[in-house]
Prior knowledge:
Elements: H1 2-17, H2 25-33, H3 38-51, H4 54-82, H5 113-129, H6 140-153, H7 159-187
Helix pairs in contact: 2-6, 4-5, 4-7, 5-6, 5-7
Amino acid sequence: MIDLFKHLDQQLLLFINSLHTTWLDPIMFQVTKIKIFTPLFLIWGFELFRWVKLKAFLVFVVCFAFLIVLTDQTANLSKNNVERYRPTHNIEIGQNVHVVNDYRGGMYGFYSGHAANTFGIAMFLFLLFRKRKTWIKYSFFPFAILTSYSRVYLGVHYPFDIFTGMLTGLFYGYFIYRIYVAIIERYFKLNENQL
């Protein structure tokens, strides 16, 4: 059963990865680096500072940093313990994977740190902004989806790596949000609607 699942995961990766185009390769290569989203991040930061009270903003910064460290380090811990080869390093299918700019990622890939980070960020920010009348709350998950898709497009993660990273990120994003709310309510006497 496990072998069948691995085979299906590999075949899905090869199918998605085969849908590459010459004009999209450099775009996905930049998307996976995340720097291309800097203007979006600046807009998010401005909106956060505008909507969130100053004391709550400082707590937000600490919680946000903790979220990034948590999602990043747990993904690295998983990669080093599970030791599942990335598609680009898998001797069975590696030669069939389309790579861009000879980018192959590290040796191991389970689970995706990009997916965990971006979905953690998306969940945390969405929960923070879900009751606000602002368009940015609709940009968090598309950012996470596009970034995660780029990892499969570039052949450095299997779909299951992405799925697991997504679930992990969603969980940690919700978990850190609840911590954030608890701190704000307890120490700053603000309720969740005043954030």
